[in-house]
Amino acid sequence: MAETKNPPLLSIGPRVHKSPFFEATLRYGATAFTVYNHTFLPASYGDNVRDYWSLVKDVTLWDVACQRQVEITGPDAFEFIQFLTPRDMSKCEVGQCQYMALTNQDGGIVNDAILLRIEEQRFWLSPGDGDVLWWAMGVAVNSGFDVKVGEPDVSPLQLQGPKSPLVARDLFGDWAVEIKYYRLRETELDGIPLVVSRTGWSGELGYELYLRDSQYGDALWERVMEAGKPYNIAPTSPSTIRSIEGGLLSYVSDITIDDSPYVIGMGQFVDFSQPGDFVGKAALQKIAAEGAGRRLVGIEIDGDALEVPNEEFWDISVNGKKIGHVTRCAHSPRLQRNIGWANVASEYSDIGSKLIVDSPSGDRGAVVCEAPWFKPQIAIPDEMKV
């Protein structure tokens, strides 16, 4: 069989969305894209390890307009939001964000999302990769709730890294370093309408800038890059390495529709005491009583440094028996170790359990370990607030 020297080109066409920042990412050197939520997402600017160091030392800007927002409004908007998730959302105030899992009738996770409560009865769901819009519209049809589900003209950028508060302060003023974690504020920047939240998928200090009018995409990008120059800002893609280190899970990889919240260590977000019903309640009660049978665990993998993260699940075995798979893995430059996440049978999930990973380069030993390796950075240092 002849060897394929170059991968085939993919012809996609207009069915894949281009973000309002797409042309800017090309100008600033994006070299590879993936498709996420039917939208182009920059996957590399040429050196992902270099960009990792920019994220953990300085500040980075990401085009994540692929986080296509799902807007839910109407007289019953809150009740409908509560119906979608097992997490009790009653304490989520206007101007607050909450992490939530969306479950189906079997207790499987349809997606995980950040919920933004913009107004009393206006919510945005900022989801992972998956058709949350269509799922939410389908659930609404016969739900009996008076709601409208749609996609607003909203496109997020992520400003992430330890120096991100300095950039945000220069852009927006002192409130940007005083706003609490997982809070949001509606604002403008040079007439550009925005929602700014203290959230992100980096494990570092950071913000999400939700552009509310796509015509300003290029102007917003350039404005942020200009403000970031004194702090060595770099345009990057979301960092797979840093997200693995910090336990920031990825939908379709670390989380699938076959996983309940109990599998991925998020059982604390399932609340059976809330008065209303929610999708998957009976199934989750059964899983809670019987046990999930599987767990997502952190692992360290032996052998030479992994050159690139895994592109498919790698089988995991014990004594020749398959007991799970690696969901994501990579070489951590800070730890100088191969680390990752694995979905394994519960009996092999204890810290110290020895595993065999079937990697493309051959079998590698692995061990279940304490994870995440670096806890998320939350508190903005007081010296940045002066």
Key terms for this structure?
386 residues; alpha+beta; Gyrase A, domain 2; Alpha-Beta Plaits; six-stranded antiparallel β-barrel; 20% helix; 32% strand; globular
- How many strand segments? 19
Mean pLDDT metric: 96
Q: Can you tell me the CATH architecture of the largest domain? A: 2-Layer Sandwich
CATH topology of the largest domain: Gyrase A, domain 2
Low-confidence regions: none
Order of helices and strands: HEEHEEHEEEHEEHHEEEHEHHEEEEEE
* SS element count, helices: 9
CATH superfamily of the largest domain: Probable tRNA modification gtpase trme, domain 1
Order of strands across the widest beta sheet? 10-11-12-9-3-13
* Euclidean distance between termini CA atoms: 66 Å
Shape annotation: globular
Q: Could you characterize the architecture of this molecule?
A:
This protein has about 375 residues and is of the alpha+beta class. The chain folds into 3 domains: about 140 residues, Probable tRNA modification gtpase trme, domain 1 (Gyrase A, domain 2, 2-Layer Sandwich); about 80 residues, 2-Layer Sandwich (Alpha-Beta Plaits); about 120 residues, Gyrase A, domain 2, CATH 3.30.1360. It has 9 helices and 19 strands. The strands form 4 sheets. The protein has a 6-stranded mixed beta sheet, sandwiched between helices. A 6-stranded antiparallel barrel has the order 14-17-16-15-18-19. Strands 5-6-7-4-8 form a 5-stranded antiparallel beta sheet, covered by helices on one side. Strand 18 and strand 19 form a beta hairpin. Helix 5 packs across helix 7. The chain is globular and about 65 Å long. The model has no long low-confidence stretch (mean pLDDT about 95).
